[in-house]
Amino acid sequence: MKLPTEHKIALLFNGNKIYDREIIAGIGAYLNSTRVSWDLYLEEDFRCRLPGIERWRGDGIIADFDDPAVCEALARSTLPVVAVGGSYQDEAGYPARVPYVATDNFKLIKLAYDHLIEAGLSRFACFSLPEADVNRWAQQREQAFCALMRRDHITPLVYRGVSTSAPSWDEAVEQQIAWLHSLPKPIGIIAVSDARARQLMQACMRAGIAVPEQVALIGIDNDPLARMLTRIPLSSVIQGTHEMGRTAAHLLHQMLNGARLDGTRILVPPAGLNVLASSSHQPGHHPQVMQARHFIRQYACQGIKTDQVADYVGVSRSSLEARFRQELGRSVHDEILHFKLDAAKAILAREPGNIADVAVRCGFTTVQYLHAVFKRELGCTPREYQERAAADAAAASAAAVAAAAAAPAIDAAVAPVALVTTPS
């Protein structure tokens, strides 16, 4: 049996970014589902490998072209190169003579925009990044937002802010707060990344602006770290990064077997939405109810009581209870319990562990109380819920592996390029 030819492949990506890591994971998925034999070269920070990369004696390169420094460094390379990056409205934004796999920036923004419309919002803004060569992807998302606003005859509200660093952090947050106060409410805000969305969430917390009642917020990347670092779970658009990585590896596989793919361009749409509390806007609530739910959403798991919520809002307990029953059909205590239950479900679904620890983390006074709430609300115990979630996750993973294994192995020497490419 003839063994596949082994190739040395460099991956020029920044391992510190979720976007890059997910693309790398997609490349790995391609390798695991085909007959290719690649020896991968990957630095934790791709910048370490840029100097002298044109003299590297490998067989091929897959690189993140969102950074102009990468484009410049590879301009003199004679190796097969596949570029990965964002889409551009202007054709001149794409690299010449290099196959290019792009995340569809317009569709990312449109998916977020459509979600905010479905949440009942009619005013929208975009939180972008300062204009710079390294932020071209952000400017493309900003332009997509403006195009959608013009299409729907809405004035675009865009704020770029400043690039944050330790010395300027407080000033940046104060500027964000000033911008937030200037906006009409309620409003839906699309941040060009989860990192940017997390910053704006912090500004809302400091300013006492209710999320999502006054500001419904959604980011892009579905970064689990961003979700962990926000008091209110962050909604996000899931980029098709796995598919981008698989597609880039497929193209390079073809090139290593002699295919000419100059000018090939493939746009990959988003994979979906992860809708969480930050964008779950419910229109029409009384300001006191909005304030109360904002406070509950942040502190439910710290064991707050109805009296503390009423004190925060600045009304009597009986008045707040009446408002809740009138607008939501439930008590303040029930609302607190609802958020604690959601937090417990999220932990049980993603982490193995002790049920007693989950009870403590979610603000339940005893593990018995946690059991009673699960039985009453969900008809199962916390352990049963955890086992069911683990089984569902294992089934989904097995299905994904089976789908990858079922995909036909690609013989790049004979694979029809037209099936996967769109020449410019």
From TrEMBL:
CDD domains: PBP1_XylR (cd01543). The keyword DNA-binding applies. GO terms for molecular function: DNA-binding transcription factor activity; transcription cis-regulatory region binding. SMART domains: HTH_ARAC (SM00342). Pfam families: HTH_18, PBP1_XylR, Peripla_BP_3. Residues 290-388 form the HTH araC/xylS-type domain. Keywords: DNA-binding, Transcription, Transcription regulation. Coiled coil: none annotated. InterPro entries: Homeodomain-like_sf, HTH_AraC, HTH_AraC-typ_CS, LacI/GalR-like_sensor, Peripla_BP_I, XylR_PBP1. PANTHER family: LACI-RELATED TRANSCRIPTIONAL REPRESSOR, XYLOSE OPERON REGULATORY PROTEIN. This is DNA-binding transcriptional regulator.
